[in-house]
Prior knowledge:
Layout: H1 5-16, H2 20-33, E1 36-38, H3 43-54, H4 60-70, E2 71-73, H5 75-85
Helix pairs in contact: 1-2, 1-4
Amino acid sequence: MKRFALPFEIHRLLKEARNKRTAILSGLVFLKLNVIRFVNPDQNVLYKMTVKIAEGKMTQSQLKKFIMENVILDFETINAYNESEN
């Protein structure tokens, strides 16, 4: 997957999916599986973002910016994985 394909996929899913909650949760799970996590995820902020995308009021670039400004690598998970390998 390309570096910034995730915002495109989340954006597409939210615009096309009938169940917006499932689409945003799928994106969050994808991030978690790739050792990336949101810093202080606020449910109200995520809900408003989901609605904006569904209504066509948030572009893919805006979503990419939102994700890049609100995620970090989950070093705790990386370290735990590395320790379990030893």
